[in-house]
Amino acid sequence: MTPRPLPQPPATLSRNAGFSRLKAHLIEHTGLAYYSDKDETLAELLAMRLAKVGVPDCGAYLDFLQDGAAGETELDALIAELTIGETYFFRHREQLDALRLTVFPEIIRRNAATRRLRIWSAGCASGEEPYSLSILLKDVFKRELAGWDVSILGTDINRDFLARAREGKYGEWAFRTNSDEFKQGCFRPSGKFWVLNPEYREGITFQYHNLAKHPFPSLVQNIAAFDLIVCRNVMIYFSAEGFEKIIPRFHDCLVEEGWLLLGHSEVVTLSPSPFK
User: Is the distance from CB of 66 to CB of 191 less than 8 angstroms?
Assistant: First the structure.
């Protein structure tokens, strides 16, 4: 049995003749322009994947990524290494307060006739964000939303994150800004983990979606006609060109008078802007 090669030093790999071409391919297919000026970090991650797959250089690895189903599987594995799932329950409470005090009351008034509420959590990572929204709706607006059709769609490019989100099981780190009362009221203990109670999982679905490559709006994928899109701290990893391409498409996925919530540092500077 031939032993797998050891990972190359990142500095050596980043000087490889095919490195720039491989990096461009990855950014094009993931939108993660965050790595445009982080060659050493990217090379370190790539070195581990090249050794794992058993290919000698960046050119051979790019060929492997473009080789049908096996390449798609490897791209998923690489994306799992490239993406950052830094999240926790009720992160950025100021924004959640804005949802509680302004956005959700406005949507509930506007949709009183249809009794329907649709939310998209784009870049949902391991599910803490859509589940936080569900807990907020069910605990604060339980009376107002009785009998409503409430749905929350969580999407991400990282399939490992999505699997964890569907499981709804979290360790202590996911509750690092929350009280014990919150944890014990919304979750049940399971060994060293906490599992979300079933009532907070109702109406939530998760699916794979690549903002950089997949079309949206999309009736086939049920990505359309949302009252609220939450995409926080995702666009900071995209280039300015990617940002300007995606923001109008978010607008097209919203109903009239719908809301888009981005991260604190993600400001829409398009001129003219589709949003107000």
Answer: no
- For residue 190, what are the β-bridge partners? 193
Give the pLDDT confidence of 49-100 residue by residue, as tens digits.
Answer: 999 989 889 999 999 999 888 889 999 999 988 887 778 999 988 999 999 9
Residue corresponding to tokens 């790595």: 35
pTM of the model: 0.90
Give the tokens for residue 199.
């009532």
Q: CB atoms < 10 A from the CB of 206, how many?
A: 21
Position 4 scores a pLDDT of 53
- β-pairing, 193-196 vs 187-190, is antiparallel
Following CA atoms 250, 251, 252, 258 in sequence, which dihedral angle do they give, to the nearest 10 degrees? 110
d(Cα 207, Cα 23) in Å, to the nearest integer?
26
**Amino acid identity, position 127:** G
- 252 and 218 Cβ atoms separated by less than 8 Å: no
Question: Can you tell me the distance from the alpha carbon of 37 to that of 137, in angstroms, rounded to the nearest whole number?
Answer: 40
Please tell me what DSSP assigns to residue 221: T
Strand partners for 261: 230
Q: Write the pLDDT tens digit of every residue in 150-177.
A: 999 999 999 999 999 999 999 999 999 9
Q: How far is the C-alpha of 111 from the C-alpha of 162, rounded, in Å?
A: 30
Q: Of 15-29, 149-163, 181-195, which range is least confident?
A: 15-29
213/39 Cα distance (integer angstroms):
23
CA-closest candidate to residue 122, choices 274, 17, 249 = 249
Question: Which tokens belong to 104?
Answer: 């959700």
